[in-house]
Amino acid sequence: MKQINNSLIQQKSNYLVVWSILIISSIYSSVFSLSAQNSKLFLIAGQSNAVGNSDDVTKSPNCILGTAFEYNILTDEFQFLKDPIGQNFNNLHQGKGSIGPAFAKTLNSITGEKILIVSAARGGASNSVKGELLAYGTWDETGNLKVFEFAVSKVNQAIKKSGIPLSGIIWLQGERDANAILAGKETESEYKLALEKLISRFRIQFGSKLPFYIVLTGLQTNVAATGSLVVRKVQCEIAKTVPNVHVAYTSTNTFPTKGWLWDYVHYKQEAYNSIGDSVARFVSTLKQDTISHKQN
Question: What element of type H or E holds 247?
Answer without folding.
Answer: strand 245-249
